[in-house]
Amino acid sequence: MKLLVFDKKEKKIIKDPTWSDITPCINNLDYLIWIDIENPNEESMQFLLDNFNFHPLDIEDCISIIERPKLDEYDDYFFLVMHIPLFTKQTRRLAPFTVNIFIGRNFLVTIHHGTCKPIENTYNNLIEKHGVLIKGSGYLLHKVLDSLIDYDFPILNKIYRNIRNVEDSIFKKVSSKNVKDILLIRTNILTFRNIIFPQRKLFKTLEIKDMEFLIDELEVYFSDLVDHIEKIWDTLENYKELIEGVHDAHQSLLSNKINDIMRMLTIFSVVILPLTLITGIYGMNIKRLPIEGSPFAFITIMSVMILISIGMIVYFKHKDWF
Prior knowledge:
The structure is a single chain. This protein is α+β, with helices and mostly antiparallel strands. 60% of the residues lie in helices and 16% in strands. The two termini are 69 Å apart.
């Protein structure tokens, strides 16, 4: 958990604040409060409920691990639920990571289960540079949302590299591993799209909201966030089409490979067929077969079989069947 209290008059951050230090600063516009709760527990949630008068249903949503993206508007604060994609190295899959945000006149509260690198980086930057804190909670909200959205772009780049890698590998060698990689990339793209899609409407709604802490000057900033999330969506659409093309190409190459194998097996079978016929005839327990008693019978039969095989192979090659 991180607590940040900024004194606007003194233009400095209060060092090592506690819950008791935050209480008198609530609703005092001379201070800006940012509370980041990494793993919500009963004590921290009860403090928010008692001192900030948040709606109990919003507190309940913060405890829930899975909650859809949304924006709830109240008289003196907004409650946002936002998702970002989280990449798990063990499974190589993306999953939604929920960030709950309360925004009011002089406070910002962020709640999430587990470490959130974008928020952690933003917090560390604000400790060094206070410019955003001087402007108020609306600018702080934009800073946090901007860091969360920017976190998507490295994941987009990683997906693109994976697409290129699997594209190169299928032209080198068609294998079942390529199918697994393609399906994994498709799954991650679909998961990413499901995370981004509901938030497009959320950010467009937030852009036009008019409250004391979301002043007109912020409209251009939130408009920029909308542009970023639309860019992410368009990129995912392109990646979806790209991986579908890679999948189709892999299926075509795999089909061609199977056809080549079947062609070679068919030619091999056709070449063996007359040889099997000859060996079958001379293997019958009957008398007076041609050259049966000749000392050169074996050599003659083998020569005929070899000539037949060579002749058929030459014929097939002439027809360009292999």
